[in-house]
């Protein structure tokens, strides 16, 4: 016993001798006036090496004493632990010098606060499920494999038997390529080996379309861990896949309205097409624009960068299966649009000069006032208007100008560094349109939207047709990915949430913005515009978003990691049509331009609700909007853009509350409209006119 104790003290005493309180010294630097490029390097004086560094910045490794890419003006913590377990915390803040850094640093906490509400996970909060991402197995594939590789790989020999225990870096198999070059592959984890490919069989062949499309076709083995591992960020924080409250809020609303309105998204589709084609356009009806022009204006506000960049992100995160759930959510969102746009027309206010004031501000205030809920109505309408103004300057303006400039500069290098000039030119183009009001906006969107959508759709169909041999594997990948996804994709729930989130964020069903545009339509029957509006999510999500996803899947680009969304889509098109990235860059600008002019109208109507309906008030808003176009194109605003983009989603809170309360009223109006339609009491154009 004495010998054992002596041995323990012999080991521990040297450590105790070295163990001591240590000091953390930090070197803080701000290398430029660009945002989010702060650097903190720390030196530990004393303590026992090796040290671990747990930074609050999730992108910094536990092994790194240097954290980069930090937001100026925001405090960051680091917990340093030495070999004896002693730990100490230090806090560092990179000083914000430039005005953009000050804005960005000030808005970052606000983004966090709003994000904590929008992306809060109620299911995880009450313990229904664990949002932490676990890995129960490690997939082992062809070393250095990429989706665009042109080669054939065969499994030559297994070095470990199926079911054998393996450790990390232990040789498990020999594979060869089409030139006969052999490579020994080692295990990437500790656990039980499962062989997925037999000796002598082909693992991956780039000439086999099924292999190109299939998710993870290049994997030939799995190592099942003895215990599931928690996947973490570089700083050690666990990875999570939450079910965001905002997604639940939008999707449950869409499901409720679909059932409440008797699946109007399906049974009303044909009539919606007839209305959009102008079959029921009454030239003497009150309003400012035709059904088609109202639809084009609203579509231009939703079809944009989300359809190009956002879908690529969704498919790369959720796999091919996210496409299926995206379509489902888009179909449900059609019912929400029907309800909000019917109310938008019903509660609109038309002034003697012909200007129309409508949208959620009106139906939230006056629709609820009719139900003796005047106080709640005023609060919800005011909240919506404030959010809509903020969203119009940010997500509907600066974000569009910023991203379209980046995309164009990426394809046309001469634009690099000329953001201010680009902003001025864009502001002039936007100004020429919006100064003329909704009639001018509707005329432009009525021409731009069909052209840009046609170019994009034709190009997408061309890529799909060029890879038509992949149609079977592609739809198989979508089905398998939707109902049998890998654990790393988050399982069925994870893929479903990714798909629903992309669709909900893209088509803005429930946000209420489209009701502002549709309230200007010439009609005597509010439900008629609801029918037209339900085409929006169909065009935006079921058609455009789905085509983007299919292009990625048909070209095998859905398996690429590490690329930004828009770049991934551009590369997918470019892999088939070498010159198309240039066309796509122009299309992105047109998408952004049309979104800006639509959102200028949404924001202006919210602005006039808050500050008055005079033309002078409208002019002030338009001038401010054009200033923000220039700012968005020429300055990196980081968190400011993130916050204002989130405001678009936040608009759905007051809006959907009102829609729930007034859904019964809409159902009654729908029933009366259907009766008129069946008895031919609606105005209808004569054939040939």
TrEMBL record:
It is a multi-pass membrane protein. One of its GO terms (cellular component) is plasma membrane. GO terms for molecular function: amino acid:sodium symporter activity. It is found in: Cell membrane. The chain crosses the membrane at residues 243-263, 379-399, 419-441, 448-468, 579-602, 623-641, 647-668. It comes from the Bacteria. The keyword Oxidoreductase does not apply. Keywords: Cell membrane, Membrane, Symport, Transmembrane, Transmembrane helix, Transport. Belongs to the alanine or glycine:cation symporter (AGCS) (TC 2.A.25) family. NCBIfam families: agcS (TIGR00835). This is Amino acid carrier protein.
């Amino acid at each position: 016993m004495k010998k054992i104790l002596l041995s323990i003290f012999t080991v521990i005493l040297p450590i105790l001798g070295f163990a001591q309180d240590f000091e953390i010294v930090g070197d803080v630097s701000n290398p430029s006036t660009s945002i989010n490029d702060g650097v903190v390097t720390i030196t530990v004086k004393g303590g026992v090496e090796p040290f671990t560094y747990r930074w609050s910045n999730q992108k910094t490794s536990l092994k790194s004493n240097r954290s980069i890419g930090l937001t100026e003006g925001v405090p960051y913590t680091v917990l340093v632990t030495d070999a004896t377990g002693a730990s100490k915390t230090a806090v560092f803040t990179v000083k914000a010098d430039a005005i953009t850094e000050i804005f960005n640093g000030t808005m970052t906490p606000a983004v966090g606060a709003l994000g904590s509400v929008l992306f809060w996970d109620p299911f995880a909060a009450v313990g229904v499920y664990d949002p932490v991402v676990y890995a129960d197995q490690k997939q082992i594939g062809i070393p250095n494999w990429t989706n665009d590789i042109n080669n054939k790989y065969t499994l030559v020999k297994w070095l470990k038997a199926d079911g054998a225990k393996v450790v990390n870096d232990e040789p498990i198999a020999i594979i060869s390529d089409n030139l006969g070059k052999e490579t020994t592959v080692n295990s990437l984890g500790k656990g039980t080996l499962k062989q997925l490919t037999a000796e002598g069989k082909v693992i991956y062949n780039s000439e086999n379309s099924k292999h190109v499309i299939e998710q993870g076709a290049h994997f030939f083995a799995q190592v099942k861990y003895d215990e599931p591992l928690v996947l973490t960020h570089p700083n050690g924080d666990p990875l999570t896949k939450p079910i965001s409250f905002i997604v639940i809020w939008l999707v449950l609303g869409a499901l409720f309205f679909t059932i409440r309105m008797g699946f109007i998204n399906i049974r009303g589709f044909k009539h919606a097409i007839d209305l959009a084609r102008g079959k029921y356009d009454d030239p003497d009806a009150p309003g400012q624009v035709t059904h088609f022009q109202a639809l084009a204006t609203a579509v231009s506000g939703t079809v944009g960068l989300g359809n190009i960049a956002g879908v690529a992100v969704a498919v790369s995160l959720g796999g091919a299966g996210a496409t299926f759930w995206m379509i489902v959510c888009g179909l449900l969102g059609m019912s929400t649009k029907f309800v909000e746009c019917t109310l938008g027309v019903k509660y609109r206010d038309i002034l003697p000069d012909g200007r129309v004031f409508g949208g959620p501000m009106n139906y939230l205030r006056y629709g609820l006032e009719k139900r003796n809920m005047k106080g709640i109505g005023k609060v919800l309408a005011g909240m919506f208007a404030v959010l809509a103004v903020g969203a119009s300057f940010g997500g509907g303006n600066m974000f569009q100008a910023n991203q379209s400039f980046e995309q164009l500069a990426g394809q046309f290098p001469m634009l690099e560094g000329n953001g201010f000039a680009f902003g001025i030119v864009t502001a002039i183009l936007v100004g020429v349109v919006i100064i003329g009001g909704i009639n001018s906006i509707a005329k432009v969107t009525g021409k731009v939207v069909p052209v840009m959508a046609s170019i994009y759709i034709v190009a997408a169909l061309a890529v799909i047709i060029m890879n038509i041999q992949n149609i079977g594997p592609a739809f198989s990948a979508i089905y398998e990915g939707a109902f049998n996804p890998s654990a790393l994709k988050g399982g069925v729930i994870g893929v479903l949430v990714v798909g629903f989130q992309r669709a909900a964020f893209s088509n803005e069903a429930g946000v209420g913005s489209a009701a502002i545009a549709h309230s200007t339509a010439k009609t005597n029957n509010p439900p008629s515009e609801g029918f037209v509006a339900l085409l929006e999510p169909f065009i935006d999500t079921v058609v455009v978003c789905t085509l983007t996803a299919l292009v990625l899947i048909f070209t095998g680009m859905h398996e690429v990691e590490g690329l930004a969304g828009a770049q991934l889509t551009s590369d997918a098109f470019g892999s088939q049509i070498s010159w198309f990235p240039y066309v796509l860059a122009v299309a992105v600008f047109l998408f952004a331009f049309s979104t800006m002019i639509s959102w200028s109208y949404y924001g202006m109507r919210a602005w006039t609700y808050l500050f008055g309906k005079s033309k002078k008030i409208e002019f002030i808003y338009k001038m401010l909007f054009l200033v923000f176009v220039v700012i968005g194109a020429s300055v990196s605003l980081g968190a400011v853009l993130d916050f204002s983009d989130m405001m678009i989603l936040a608009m759905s809170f007051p809006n959907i509350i009102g829609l729930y309360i007034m859904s019964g009223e809409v159902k009654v109006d729908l029933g009366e409209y259907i009766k008129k339609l069946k008895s031919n009491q609606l105005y209808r154009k004569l054939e040939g006119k």
